[in-house]
Amino acid sequence: MTAPVHEIPERSGTAFVLKAGDMLTVIDPRGEQVADLLAFNARDLDEVISSGRTLDYAEMIYLTAGHQLYSNRSNVMLEIVADTVGRHDFLLTPCSVDTFRHFYPHLPVHRGCFGNLAAALEPYGVTPDRIPVAFNCFMNVPIDGETGKLRVLPPISKAGDHIQFRAAMDLVIGLTACSAPDSNGGSFKPIHYRIDSAAA
Amino acid sequence: MTAPVHEIPERSGTAFVLKAGDMLTVIDPRGEQVADLLAFNARDLDEVISSGRTLDYAEMIYLTAGHQLYSNRSNVMLEIVADTVGRHDFLLTPCSVDTFRHFYPHLPVHRGCFGNLAAALEPYGVTPDRIPVAFNCFMNVPIDGETGKLRVLPPISKAGDHIQFRAAMDLVIGLTACSAPDSNGGSFKPIHYRIDSAAA
Fold it and tell me: Residue limits of the DUF1989 domain (chains A, B) (predicted)?
C-alpha cells in the first residue's frame, strides 16, 4: 500500500501532525517550486525548529540526506533520509506581506508563506510571532563566500524531485507551496507531499 | 561628557534597556573576542531580532555599517552605524550546554552564551525558549560558497575594535563575552560596551 499523495495548491499552505518515526516526502511535481517547512514539538510548541542550532551542528549551510534538523533545545526533530536535489535554504524567513512590499512593490501584496503558515498553524495553537526561519525545501540561495552576498535563484529541482524526512519526535508540521516570484522561477506551482506512517 | 564604559567579564553576560535613539558601542578591548547580541522590543517581548528577516532584506550574510537589523515583524530594531571590523556572524545560535557537549566533549561543560543570556534576560521576562539566533559581534564564520561548509575561525578584531548600533525602538538588549573556545581564538576575554543616550 502506497500512502496517498496530498496536494498543496499554488501559493497556499497546510499543517498536519507527523508522528515520531513517520516519513514525510515533499515532492516538487512540476519543478522549480519551493516549499517552506516548519516543525514544532507537538507536545510542547515552545520547542521549534532552529536554523541556528542546525547549521552550527552540521557545520554546513547546504543540508541534504544524512543531515539532522535540530530544535531550539538542541534535540533532533527531523532527519533528511533522501534528497534528489541537494540544494535547499535554511537562512531566510518565509515570505510575507512585508517582504512583498519590500521586494515586489509593483505587484499585488500577498500574505505569502508567512501568512499561509500562520493560518494553517493557528488551529494547532501556534501564533505568528513563533514562526522562525523555515527549512525552505528546493529554495536556491547561493552565497558568495568572499562578499557574503546572497542571491535567490530559481530552484534546481526538476519535476518529480523530492526530499524525504523522518520525524524524530511527534511534530506539528507547517508546509507551503511558496508564493514569492523570485524563489520559484517566476511562476507559482503546487507542492505534493506524502506521509508514510511508522504505524502502518 | 563621554558615557562610561561597562565591562562584561569573560564568559559572562548582561542585559539592559536601550532607548530609541540611543547608541550602543560594543568594544573588543583585547582583540579576538566575540560578543553575542540579542534584542527584544521592550514594549512587547514577542517582537525579537530575526536573522532570517535581516539577511533576506540585506541580501547579504556579512553585515556592517549601513545595515539594519530587523525583527520577526519586519521592523528595524537596530542600525549598524559604525564598524571597524566588518566580519560578524548572524547564522548561529549562542553556545550552550548542548553545544559544549557536542563540540568540546573533553572540556568542562559551560552554560555558554545561551545560559548567560537566559540568566541576564530572565529579570526582563524573556524565557530561554525565546532566545533566537544572535547577532554575534566579531564572530568570524566564513562560508565556502561552493560546498556550503562553514568554519568558526578566530575573530579578525584587534584590541579596541568596535561596532556601534543605533536603536530604532526601545529595546531590551542581551550581550555576552562569548564562552566557546573556537569562537574566540582559544582564550576568554572581556567585552566592553558604552551607551550614548539620545536624551543626554
Answer: 7-172
Tell me which H or E stretch contains A53. Answer: helix A51-58
The secondary structure of residue A95, as a DSSP letter, is: P
Whether B72 sits inside 8 A of A129 (CB atoms) is yes
Contacts of B131 (CB under 8 A, 6+ apart): A72, B38, B93, B94, B114, B117, B118, B121, B174
Which pLDDT does position A49 carry in this prediction? 98
Joined grid coordinates for residue B166: 543605533
What pLDDT is stored for residue B60 in this prediction? 97
Give the distance from residue A61's alpha carbon to the nearest chain B alpha carbon, in angstroms: 5
The size of the A-B interface in CB pairs under 8 A is: 110
The yes-or-no verdict on residue A1 having pLDDT over 90 is no
β-strands B135-137, A13-18 pairing: unpaired
CB A173 within 8 A of CB A24: yes
- The sheet carrying B161-167 orders its strands as B5-8, B191-196, B23-28, B161-167, B76-83, B68-70
* Pairing mode of beta strands B13-18, B68-70: unpaired
CA-nearest of B4, B10, B2 to B30 is B10
Of A48, A98, A150, the CB nearest to B55: A150
ipTM of the complex: 0.96
Exposure pattern of B124-149 as b/e (b: 16+ CB <10 Å)? eebebbbbbbbbbbbbbbbbebeebe
**Residues A28-74 pLDDT 10s:** 999 999 999 999 999 999 999 999 999 999 999 999 999 999 999 99
Q: How many Cβ atoms are within 10 Å of B72's Cβ, its own excluded?
A: 25
Rounded CA gap, A155 and A188, in Å? 12
- B65, B84 contact by CB (below 8 A): no
How many Å apart are CA B100 and CA B183, to the nearest integer? 12
CB B172 within 8 A of CB B15: yes
